[in-house]
Design a protein that fits this description.
Structural class: alpha+beta
Mean pLDDT: 85
Number of strands: 8
Radius of gyration: 29 Å
Helix content: 10-25%
Number of helices: 1
Strand order of the largest sheet: 2-8-7-4-5
Low-confidence stretches: none
Length: 176
C-alpha cells in the first residue's frame, strides 16, 4: 500500500513539474515574440517628425501675455524637438500676422516678412528650450495680432524647407 501511494505521489510531482515547465516555456515564448515584434516595428517603423512649442517667460506652459505695447519686446521661450532619425539644422522664423490670411498652414508658411529668427542644431531625440526676445510691432490699424513662430529645417540640396509646424500667440497691441 505504501508503494502505491509513493507511485501516485511521484506521478503527481511529474505532472506538476510538466505544468511548471510548460508555463515557463510559454512565458519565454510570449516575451520572445514581443521582443521580436518590437525589433521589427521599432525605430525603423516609427514616423519621423519635429515639434515646436511656445512657453511663457519662465519657460512654462500657461500665463502668456495677452497685451503688449506697440514697439515693446516680449520675453518668451521656444521649445524644439527632433525625432527625424538624424541630426537637424533648424530655424525658427518669427512673423506678425494681422489677419487670418497672414496665418501659416500645415503646408504653406505665412506670407508675412521674417522679423527675427533663431537657429540651432539638434541630434535625433534631442530637444531644446531657448529664451527669446520678441519685438512687437503691429501694422497700422491693427490692435490684435498673432505672433507666429514657424519651424524650418535645412536640407542639403534644397535649402531651408518649411516643416508645416508652427505656433502662435494672439496679443492685443496698445499705444504707449
Amino acid at each position: 500500500m505504501v508503494q502505491v501511494e509513493e507511485e501516485v505521489g511521484c506521478e503527481a510531482v511529474r505532472m506538476l513539474l510538466d505544468e511548471e515547465v510548460f508555463a515557463v516555456v510559454l512565458a519565454v515564448s510570449v516575451v520572445a515574440s514581443a521582443v521580436g515584434i518590437a525589433l521589427v516595428l521599432g525605430p525603423g517603423g516609427s514616423e519621423a517628425f519635429t515639434a515646436i512649442g511656445l512657453l511663457n517667460s519662465e519657460c512654462r506652459i500657461g500665463e502668456y501675455p495677452v497685451k503688449a505695447y506697440n514697439g515693446s519686446t516680449l520675453h518668451l521661450c521656444l521649445f524644439i524637438y527632433n525625432h527625424m532619425g538624424e541630426a537637424i539644422y533648424y530655424r525658427v522664423a518669427y512673423k506678425i500676422a494681422a489677419s487670418q490670411g497672414d496665418m501659416p498652414t500645415n503646408t504653406t508658411p505665412s506670407p508675412r516678412p521674417v522679423i527675427a529668427e533663431w537657429k540651432g542644431v539638434l541630434g535625433d531625440g534631442w530637444n531644446e528650450t531657448t529664451r527669446v526676445e520678441v519685438p512687437v510691432a503691429a501694422p497700422s490699424g491693427s490692435s490684435r495680432v498673432a505672433l507666429v513662430f514657424e519651424l524650418w529645417v535645412y536640407r542639403q540640396g534644397e535649402g531651408w524647407v518649411y516643416t508645416g509646424r508652427w505656433v502662435h500667440l494672439y496679443v492685443n497691441v496698445t499705444s504707449w
